[in-house]
Design a protein that fits this description.
Layout: H1 2-11, E1 24-25, E2 28-29, H2 33-46, H3 49-133, H4 139-161, E3 164-166, E4 179-185, E5 195-200, E6 203-205, E7 208-211, E8 213-218
Protein name: GrpE protein homolog
Pfam family, one: GrpE
Family: Belongs to the GrpE family.
Length: about 230
């Protein structure tokens, strides 16, 4: 209505350019703000109070609509940001859960492997003790010894495949984290604090100690110190 009045005042007829579209407020189509300001300026110069009032109402309505749309846009942006943050948190929680599950699975597998290997260590001791004490005196005993030795070698290879290693002892500095000393003795061969004799072999599974090595430690060439 007001636009038609302005058009009639300026051009003598109502003329709208369909390619220039402004805001739509409550179903009414308003021209761009630039055009409204120009219409207001023209109506003011011409003293057309009726058109001035219409244009002022239109400008107010357009400004309110812009404010509403801006507020709605801000609200949507906030929701999107919040949703993104929630997604990031959920994704981080899922990744932490995956890592924790993997860690617990690896720990469980490692514990099972340790238990299996530890249950085999007495068998290793038995084989080694038999090898030391047994001296075949005839062909039959030699065959039995060879058979035992073959089984022992298979056991050793299995343990090696599982990652089992032997704790180094003789000639190494005494290390309480992997060695268990049962005595200290004088030695002309080894300096003080050096392992001079292995009583029972120690084992580790990769970096995890399965059993400390039982050893005797040298006190050097001085007096024997006895048990510790």
């Amino acid at each position: 209505m007001w636009l038609g009045m302005v058009g009639e005042k300026r051009n003598g007829s109502t003329k709208r350019d369909g390619s220039r579209r402004g805001a739509v407020v409550n179903g009414e189509d308003f021209p761009p703000m630039k055009d409204l300001i120009q219409l207001y300026r023209t109506a003011f110069l011409e003293g057309n109070d009726e058109v001035l009032g219409e244009v002022e109402k239109a400008i107010t309505a357009v400004e309110k609509e812009k404010s509403r749309v801006a507020s709605q846009f801000e609200s949507i942006t906030t929701e999107i940001t919040s949703g993104k943050e929630k997604f990031i948190r959920l994704n981080a929680d899922l990744e932490n859960f995956r890592k924790q599950t993997e860690k617990e699975r690896a720990k469980f597998t490692s514990n099972i492997r340790v238990e299996v290997v530890q249950s085999l260590l007495p068998l290793v001791d038995c084989f080694e003790k038999t090898n030391l004490e047994n001296t075949p005196e005839n062909e039959k005993e030699q065959k039995i010894s060879t058979s035992y030795q073959g089984i022992y070698n298979q056991l050793v290879e299995t343990l090696r495949y599982l990652g089992v290693g032997v704790v180094e002892t003789v000639g190494m500095p005494f290390d309480p984290s992997v060695h268990e000393a049962i005595s200290q003795e004088a030695s002309m061969q080894f300096k003080a604090g050096i392992v001079m004799h292995e009583v029972r072999r120690g084992f580790h599974l990769k970096e995890r100690l399965l059993r400390p090595a039982t050893v005797k430690v040298s006190t050097g060439s001085g007096k024997q110190s006895g048990s510790s």
